[in-house]
Every structure is written in structure tokens, then in C-alpha cells.
Amino acid sequence: MSLNRAPIAIAAVLRQLVVALALFLAAMHGYAIAVAPEGESEFGRTELAMDRSTEDRILALVPERISAAEVRDILSRSTAPRIVALHGSVPLITMEPFAEFLIAMGYPETRLRDPKDHSLSHASNGSAAELAGTIAWYYEADGLMPMLIGHSQGGMLAIKALHELAGSFASEVEVWNPLTDASEHRTWIRDPRSGVIRPVVGLKLSYVAALATGKLPRWVLGQWSMLDKVRQVPDSVEEFSGYTIEWDPIAGTFPGSEAYRATGSALVRNVTLSAATSHIAMPLARALAFDKVTRAWIDSYRPGENLPPPADAAVDTSNLLHAADIWFSVKKHWCIELQRLIRARRSSIAAVEGGA
Fold first, then answer.
1. 142 and 82 in contact (C-beta within 8 Å)?
2. What is the pTM assigned to this prediction?
């Protein structure tokens, strides 16, 4: 090597080292961590390597227009946000069948299973502060904001967790470790996208859904702190979908019942379901993913189009509308969260390279 080319070669080596360091730091902060497909990480999740080509394909997706092929061939080649499915106070039917529906539609099973006990459905009689702290823990670990889907009282707990993150009950919330089921005795996380230390209060989820959650059970169960909040959606979520059965004596909702409303900037959608919808049986959606007719209807579904359910389906379609609507939103926010993670990682690497 000639002497006049030595500084150039050294600079090139240093630049490669800087890029390698940036990639290492990105992985440590929860950015697209590459793990063998069959391997389990310490967080109980299975992830696929997300190479540059896959990242480019994800960035090119339109979140509101995710097809079945794009779920199969693009989104599934990466990781996904954690989904916490919360069942009602008396779980005659848990949220397990609905989680199985999401899995059958293409969502990664490991992102629905609890990392400790591997269950697909979570109780709704726990602490909203602990749930909010768990959300913070997942986000710090994964770099992807979790989603919440709650049925009946599970919807109430999801909404209460949003109020915890908004600071409605206390100015601080402790990080809660779902693996040890214990507090980490800190009220902050290191944001996996920016690397900045930030409090748990103020975090914002991308998507939350509540199914058949009413005020009447709050009276019966003495959940007084939520009476004036169960229909208020704070700024701790970007998009919220509330599903109300037109005549629901269990939830205490009837035509003209109070709708969900945003207290600030959250996008809130109210979806009214037919009186024929069963409050208890709402999570029973698994079969819809395996019938070719209902599967095709779900894949083509877009909110607001008001298409009639297929008449020639071989399965019960009572739960078709809310199942399709939730799947649409889950796909959308799965894509949005991945796009944010990829852009944050690339921005971090570019900043390091620019300072080299």
C-alpha cells in the first residue's frame, strides 16, 4: 500500500467500525434485532432477521392498504408489536379464541403469548398501573409500542391503563417486568428509538380496542374511579376503537348510549354492533379465519364501506364485523410501528456516520 493511500484506507476501516458500532447500539436499544428464526430471545419472542431489502419493502407499504399477501410475504418476515388481549371479569369465554384468530390471519404467535406463562388471554382484575408499567417495559425491550385489545372488563382495564399513562391518577408509574411479575422500581425508560431517558407517564400507544365495555358493571363492581373516565380516551393512544352492542344488558348499553370521545388528539372510532351480537361470545372469531368466504371478506374489509356479511359462509358470522375491523387496525399499526422503528434506526446510524 502506498503511503499516500494509507490515510484513505485507515479512514475507510474507521468508518466501517463506526457503522458496526451503530448497528450494535441499535440492537441494544431494541431496534430490529436479528435472531435465528427458530431461536427464542431472553424476552420470550421469536424474531426474523430484518435485512435492508425487507426494511425497504416495509417502508414502501401503505398502512391502510395491507393485503393478505403483504402480511405473509413482508410483515411476517420481521417482528411485531406485543398484543395484550384482556378477557372479562367472568371469563366464560376468554380472549384466547380471538388471539387464535389473529394468529390464523398471520400475526406472530409469540407476540400474543405472555412471555412468562405463554397464555393468550390475560385477566382483567389486575392493576392498571402494572399494565401501564408492563407496556413501558415491552416498548423499551422491543422498540415497538404494544397494542391492547380488551373484552368487557378487559376493555375497562385497557382504558384505565391509558389514563395511568396520561397521568390521570398519579404523576408517576413504575416499570413492571412481566417476566418476574414485579416492579423494577424506576419510573423511566430509555426510549429505544431515541436513546433518551423518559418517564413512563407520557408514553403513547398506537392502538387500543375495547369490546362491549359499559358503565353499568362499573357501578355493580364498585369501580368508582372509572365511572367518569370509561368513555374518555386520553392522549396516551393514537387510535382507539370502541365496539358497542346496540342492546347489551350486561354492559348496560342501549341505542343512544354515551359514545367514546377523545379528551384531546386521539382518533376515536365508535362501532355499533347488531343487537344479535352476543356480549359473552364476542371473542369467538377463530373459525372466521379458516372459512374461505369469511377470510376473503376480512381480507378485503375497509372501515366505513358497510358491506353486508357474506350469505354463503359455512360458519357463524355474528362476530365478523368487529373481528375484521380489529384485524384491519392491527395490520395498520403493525406496519406503522415497524416503519417508525426502521426510520429511527436508520436515522441513528446516519447520525453516527455523519459524525465520523
1. yes
2. 0.85
pLDDT bin (cut points 50, 70, 90) of residue 351 is confident
pLDDT tens readout for residues 204-251: 999 999 999 976 554 444 565 777 899 999 999 999 999 999 999 888
Strands 83-86 and 176-177: unpaired
Mean pLDDT of the chain: 85
Grid coordinates 441499535 are at which residue?
Answer: 26
State how beta strands 182-183 and 176-177 pair. antiparallel
What was the pLDDT predicted at 15? 39
CATH number listed for the domain at residues 65-339: 3.40.50
Residue ranges of the domains in the chain? 65-339
CB count in 10 Å sphere of residue 111: 24
